């Protein structure tokens, strides 16, 4: 049993697909929590959740965090950080992030968050 657990732990660390599978349920729950926080106007809580998921490599969270940081009355540092997160999401093929980066490059800010997956 101990060998099996050790093997599973090794797979989780070395195999991205396995690691993503292992975190699918908590990620979906956390995404719902972030959306609920946004809906009730608690932007700081939503940002904290998106940041936590983005730090773990979730492309939707990277996109959402990037969107939050690049729109509205953001500071230059926030916009730079937002572009970083959008770039990470875009590098994973996230279409909304690709669109947002195009809008930023054209000098226009994305008006709304694209449809959530």
TrEMBL record:
<feature type="signal peptide">
    <location>
        <begin position="1"/>
        <end position="19"/>
    </location>
</feature>
<protein>
    <recommendedName>
        <fullName>Sel1 repeat family protein</fullName>
    </recommendedName>
</protein>
<keyword id="KW-0732">Signal</keyword>
<dbReference type="InterPro" id="IPR011990">
    <property type="entry name" value="TPR-like_helical_dom_sf"/>
</dbReference>
């Amino acid at each position: 049993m101990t060998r099996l657990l050790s093997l599973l732990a090794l797979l989780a660390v070395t195999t991205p697909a396995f690691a993503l599978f292992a975190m699918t349920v908590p990620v979906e729950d956390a995404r719902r929590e972030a959306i609920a926080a946004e809906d009730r106007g608690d932007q700081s809580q939503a940002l904290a959740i998106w940041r936590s998921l983005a730090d773990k490599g979730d492309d939707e969270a990277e996109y959402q965090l990037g969107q939050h940081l690049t729109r509205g009355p953001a500071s230059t540092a926030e916009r730079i950080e937002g572009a970083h997160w959008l770039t990470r999401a875009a590098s994973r093929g996230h279409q909304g992030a690709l669109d947002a980066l195009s809008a930023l490059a054209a000098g226009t800010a994305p008006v709304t968050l694209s449809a959530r997956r």
